[in-house]
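Q: I'm a student working through a structural biology exercise. My instructor gave each of us a protein and asked us to get a predicted structure, then write a short paragraph describing it. Mine is UDP-3-O-acylglucosamine N-acyltransferase. I'm not confident about reading structure output yet, so if you can add a plain explanation after the tokens, that would really help. Here is the sequence I was given:
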Amino acid sequence: MKFTATQIAGILEGDIVGNPDVEVSKLSKIEEGTEGSLTFLANPKYKPFIYTTRASITIVNKDFEAENDLETTLIRVEDAYKSFSKLLEYYNQVKLNKTGIEQPVFISESVEMGENAYVGAFSYLGDNVRIGKNVKIYPNVYIGDNTNIGDNVVVFAGAKIYSESIIGNNCVIHSGAIVGADGFGFAPNENGEFQKVPQTGNVIIEDHVDIGAGTTIDRATLGSTVIRKGVKLDNQIQIAHNVEIGENTVIAAQTGIAGSTKIGKNCMIGGQVGIVGHITIGDRVRIQAQSGIGRNVKDDEVLQGSPALNYGDYNKSYVYFKNLPKLAEAINKIEKKHK
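A: Happy to help. First, here is the predicted structure for UDP-3-O-acylglucosamine N-acyltransferase. I'll explain a few features afterward.
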């Protein structure tokens, strides 16, 4: 796809300085710009590169003043960073705007599908599946029986959505994600063998949720595993059965959340955090990467470590952790002196 400076300026409501007919077909960093690419300058640290970049078009703030000659065409906007992000979003919408049903696919006769849907090759849509408007289902996607998917949802290649799942509007489910697999439920019998506990619940994902590649969300044993609206999940996260994650909480990669834990609104959870089951984490909690959470957490707490401590206490304690060898040596000297 090619865009002219005039088209881009129209999208961004910007002013052109240079050639309005110059075309771009790719994006680049300003320091790596090549002919036919579009870039932007927002951080003053990168200002020297605007005089050497070979990018055909550069988005800049309106207050930018060139100190030397430029080869690149400028588009002046109020905020270069936000405008570039807006352009990326527009580009993705155009790029992902596929419609129609490719072949081969399997679509049950009982499927209900809204207008402007796209279903990629080798996908499977089971009985009584409901698909909303403008939904994009990429190749090799599995959607189980009785699943309900809202409007403007994108399900990327290879994702698996098990039966009875409910997906809200404006969600994105990335490749390899699995929604609705059985929870890890086993109980020992009289012979000491572990016997599977049937997982009869489902997964509910509300509006505007992003689910990263390779992330798994288990169905509930009874009831529902619930991901509230606005939640953003990174890649390779494990969310166990009957977990509930509150609105607008963000969780980084490789975090694991055990069964029946409730997480509040507007929390920020770093990568590789481990959270035990059957606890409650309050609203606006921040948990640093690689922390281990084994207790209930109150609203607004900031935690680090394993087991996690209050963030301030952890930092104070860390001064002693890293000096333990010196402290031990000093104690040994004192003990020898008094023997």
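A: Here are two points you could use in your paragraph. The domain at 100-314 is CATH 2.160.10.10 (UDP N-Acetylglucosamine Acyltransferase; domain 1). The chain has a mean pLDDT of 94. It's a good idea to check both against the output above yourself.
Q: Great, thank you!
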